[in-house]
Amino acid sequence: MADHLDLHTVGDLLHHYPRRYAERGELTRLSDLPLDEHVTVVAQVADARVHTFNGGRGRRLEVTITDGSGRLQLVFFGKGVHKPRTELQPGTRAMFAGKVTVFNRKRQLAHPEFKTLGAGSGAEAVEAFANQLLPLYPACKQMESWQIQQAVDTVLGPAGHEESALAGLIDPLPESLREGRGLATLPEALRKIHRPGTKADIATARDRLKWDEAFVLQVALARRRQADAQLPAAPRKPAPDGLLTAFDARLPFTLTEGQRRVSEEIFADLATDHPMHRLLQGEVGSGKTMVALRAMLGVVDAGGQAAMLAPTEVLAQQHHRSITEMMGELAEGGMLGGAEQGTKVVLLTGSMGAAARRQALLDLVTGEAGIVIGTHALIEDKVQFHDLGLVVVDEQHRFGVEQRDALRSKGKQPPHLLVMTATPIPRTVAMTVFGDLETSVLDQLPSGRSPIASHVVPAKDKPHFLARAWERVREEVAAGHQGYVVCPRIGDEEDEAKAAKGKSPEDEAEKRPPLAVVDVAEQLVKGPLSDLRVEVLHGRMQPEAKDEVMRRFAAGEVDVLVATTVIEVGVNVPNATAMVIMDADRFGVSQLHQLRGRVGRGSAAGLCLLVTDMPEGSPARARLGAVAATLDGFELSRIDLEQRREGDVLGQAQSGVRSSLRVLAVIDDEEVIAAAREEAAAIVAADPELAGYPQLRTALDALLDKERAEFLDKG
User: Fold this and answer.
1) Measured between alpha carbons, how far is 316 from 395 in angstroms, rounded to an integer?
2) 388-394 and 416-421: which strand pairing?
3) Distance of CA 146 to CAs 136, 140, 351, Å?
4) Helix (H) or strand (E) segment spanning residue 552
5) What letter does residue 27 receive in the DSSP assignment?
6) What share of the chain is helix, strand, coil (3-state, %, to 5)?
7) Which of 9, 275, 363, 572 is the least crowded, having the fewest Cβ atoms under 10 Å away?
């Protein structure tokens, strides 16, 4: 039990809550038994016989019962024969509960639960048995639900005497909060969740236990926020006529209202003597990079350096390219032809040549480079800064707390931190997972961005739709634009082996591995896109080769790029207007939304075609329909969460936070989370060390220990 279900103590067991409850069903007469329903009957045993089969190796007990209105057969097999054989003697009166099935045209109950009735058992006992709610626990092969129920029963003791077994429990909720919110006590909640008398009992218990989870988690986050706020930081105020002013003067467009508002929030944070911790969420293409770049320039103005961390080399190179382009001669500080108030912008990635890397490291140490853009290579010990003032992290959900801390230690004082994500995060998830960060949202698209039309292409049901999709790509290219074709897989042997290993039931049903870049590109070149310039891009290419393909695509020398999700984040080619996503059902909702954001980045309208073999009416088709129906990332992230549970969507965002959620559902329990956050903030502000709340401290230590253990496992 300990290993398979992670249950080591009595407390773990009591907090292993039932997943749902079976109802035995109303008391029914044998003459009125409905098929396929759970029923409870009270009847007398008329006859009981054991039959052997399989050459004497198998045993089957058949029991016939009657209640005066009709007869019914019960069957028990194998080891399940012993107890009923001794207890269900002819003449015995008992209650039986199970699901009615038909065998040999006769109704029967297979392996029903039963409870014999003594001579004095009245109607109340029968009623109690029939209406009882039976807890069904999350179980595993080594530990069935009924065994867990037996263990819980042993711990709780006889009915009506649970209080003594539950007396010593650690209750994390302060008494005043519990009473003020009208919540049940912890012993009452645990008794009602494991042994509910009514459905109302279950609701009472869940309301209370949700609060425990939300509150302890929010206290942990509030304390992290408070600790961060105590750290010293150098205020960074941009010089009045410096680099930022010069950059703004060069911009060929005006910032959106949203970009101006968020920039003000950021500059206000940067001016304080505590480190900024801000999460910047923005729709794909809402101009987050521009906001981040202005913040970096402001810090350089104030004499500091800024580092931008990207999750992949392709993205780091792309950011470097677009930032140096936006800055023009301002990015050539100290060089001939560079602007006098300019600075150097350097790139630092793992695959750089030794000489280039040495030069980049030197520029950072001397302070020559005001801005550095790189991958995780930036966190290595060798990298030293002259005066690191701001860290910008792109795509936070690929970046854990420990990496943030490693980078933080690079500054003379903790640097300011700006975290960007293009995955729109519903407010509650932001509060739960990024609760130690302040949040800014960019929800307008910059002027000049075009709408994207999205359509589902059911390739199996309507093959001519797929032919039309390739025609549309050719039309876009003929109009002077470019397109992407995205596939789930790269397509070589190593890949094949992996694909075969991790088959899901859906894959089995389809009997084919996901489409691969290499194969699709070959088919397109031979077939529907034969006269176009088609290239491939995937993660296993050499970095130089990847960069070369991206450069040529950006320069318009490639018509169609067949790629994996390498292009998901941050690739910016305004001339690309069409995207065809093959096997779109193999991608998550948020991922499809991210991919789609790569088209329609210029003045021409975008087109996204979601190709699938899934039949109409399947959940996968419904999901694709939802993506095609809206461009609102927040709406889609809600759909995604409801379908896939929190964990997958957030990736490994923060360590350990989600694994501790048992009854709290991040999407449905918005009110509880928001209220718990307020209560937690008030308590931590008044008593940062929680000296007056010893039980809350204990619960918090348990949560954080689990979190820390997961840190170490990941490290």
Assistant:
1) 12
2) parallel
3) 8, 11, 56
4) helix 543-554
5) B
6) 45, 20, 35
7) 9
CB contact set of 521 (below 8 Å; sequence gap of 6+) = 485, 534, 535, 536, 562
Query: CB-based contacts of 397: which residues, under 8 Å, 6+ apart?
Result: 421, 423, 650, 651, 652, 653
**Residue pointed to by tokens 């280039």:** 356
**Range in 261-270, 276-285, 611-620, 657-666 the model is least confident about:** 657-666
- pLDDT score recorded for residue 663: 76
The DSSP element (H or E) to which 546 belongs, if any, is: helix 543-554
Whole-Å CA distances, 317 to 351, 359, 373, 504, 548: 11, 17, 8, 35, 11
Pairing of strands 20-23, 58-66: unpaired
Amino acid at 47: D
How far apart (Å, rounded) are the C-alpha atoms in residues 361 and 369? Answer: 9
What does the alpha-carbon distance between residue 275 and residue 522 come to, in Å, rounded to a whole number?
52
Which of these ranges, 175-179, 526-530, 590-594, has the smallest mean pLDDT? 590-594
- For CA atoms 107, 111, 113, 114, give the dihedral sign: positive
Q: Flag whether pLDDT at 541 surpasses 60.
A: yes
Give the model's pLDDT for residue 568: 61
Q: Is 486 exposed, middle or buried (0-12, 13-18, 19+ CB in 10 A)?
A: buried
Three-class HEC string of 94-150? EEEEEEEEEECCEEEEECCEEEECCCCCCHHHHHHHHHCEEEECCCECCECHHHHHH
Among all chains, which residue has been given the structure tokens 């779109």? Answer: 584
Tokens of 424: 């729109």
d(CA 542, CA 701): 46
Annotate 391-426 with DSSP letters as a single string. EEEESGGG--HHHHHHHHTTSSSPPEEEEEESS---
Instruction: Choose among 286, 520, 329, 321: nearest CA to 420.
Output: 286
Angle at 354 between CA 349 and CA 357, to 5 degrees: 45
Within a 10 A sphere around the Cβ of 250, how many other Cβ atoms?
A: 12
Q: Which amino acid is at 439?
A: T
CA contacts within 13 A on the Cβ side of 456: 21
DSSP string, 650-671: H-S-SSSTGGG-SS--TTTTHH
